[in-house]
Amino acid sequence: MKLPQHGANPDYVYKAMAIKQPEDLLDFSMNVNPAGPPASILECWTDWLPAVNDYPDPEGRELIEDISLQEGLSTSQIMLGNGAAELIQLLASSLQGKRVLLIQPTFSEYERMCRAFDCEITHFVLEGVNEWQLELSDLEPLLATHDAIFFCHPNNPTGVISSEQSLVALLSACSQHNCLLIVDEAFYDFMDRPFTMASQLPGQDHLVVLRSLTKMYAIAGLRLGYLLASPRMIQHLKKRQSHWSVNAIALLSGLQCLRATDFAAQTRMECTIERNRMLEKLTSYGYRISKSHVNYYLLQDTQLDDQYPLYVHLLKQGIVPRHTYNYKGLAGRWLRFAIRDTADNDVLLEALQRWKQEN
Length: 359
Ligand SMILES: Cc1ncc(COP(=O)(O)O)c(C=O)c1O
Known about the structure:
Distance between the termini: 26 Å
CATH superfamily of the largest domain: Type I PLP-dependent aspartate aminotransferase-like (Major domain)
Order of helices and strands: HEHHEHEHEHEHEEEHHHEEHEEH
CATH architecture of the largest domain: 3-Layer(aba) Sandwich
Helix content: 25-40%
Number of domains: 2
Strand content: 5-15%
Oligomer: single chain
Bound molecules: pyridoxal-5'-phosphate
Radius of gyration: 20 Å
Strand order of the largest sheet: 2-8-7-6-5-3-4
CATH class of the largest domain: Alpha Beta
CATH topology of the largest domain: Aspartate Aminotransferase, domain 2
């Protein structure tokens, strides 16, 4: 059985598991905004179609200008990507053969891409018993012997965050040891009180911040992300990127996303209400839940070591969790669920309550 390495595209899961796919599915394996894209994008969709006749702006200048204003950074510190996934690939290619530290359990593309570019990988595995909290004192001895560290914040799949103070301390230690700190903030805008490492960038050569627009703005199929770093790092990475990497509709959508100012705040508010509701109910049913601050969480039926029976049970009902077999340190002992809208979350609550009553 070869399960997919990511959430979304549930038909691959059903095929791998040899389970008949129900007609109606609720996909909790994909962490995108359940509200869908901002209305301002949906209204423009058809008007934008003629833009595909021409090549897109290879520099994405208008979008970069907007990001520059939003982040208070120079345009020379920003580059766009065909999703944050492309930017991870470019970073890995720039680290070819180097020593890379991965804080696990985390997004599997860091390892996959670093392996593709023959990096020497060290896994630093955080434990669920410690709520997956990173202690700088434990990590510091490794910084001197590594060229770069990928740190997903908020972390995928746990949803756990660190304090701003501890991230700044980590950056300071990385600078001292000449280790590049790559902070993946793909989900930072789902935090109830978002904070970013981008404010540390001016004058800082040892920091890269990654962002994705595909999750908050529900444009995963369009592919759009950006990277913030020193001008030197941006130039270095751009040399490796293919021309016209970001398509014309993604560029136009990106502008609308950043201009939809209330959209993210509204999503955050709804997400926080739903997350608190889910965590409270699921805990009361007897499940263990990760201390998530974003739009997904890990869940464990403590009666089971491997969550496989629960996974199969939910899949058969058309409820699709994200398995955790390919996350170091989780190995199937947890399932990940996205926060969807109230009605969908209620379906999940009912199924999980019934499972506990019957098992
Ligand atoms: C932590 C993290 N970073 C980056 C990505 C890639 O995002 P994008 O859709 O922008 O390529 C994902 C996708 O799931 C992710 O979970």
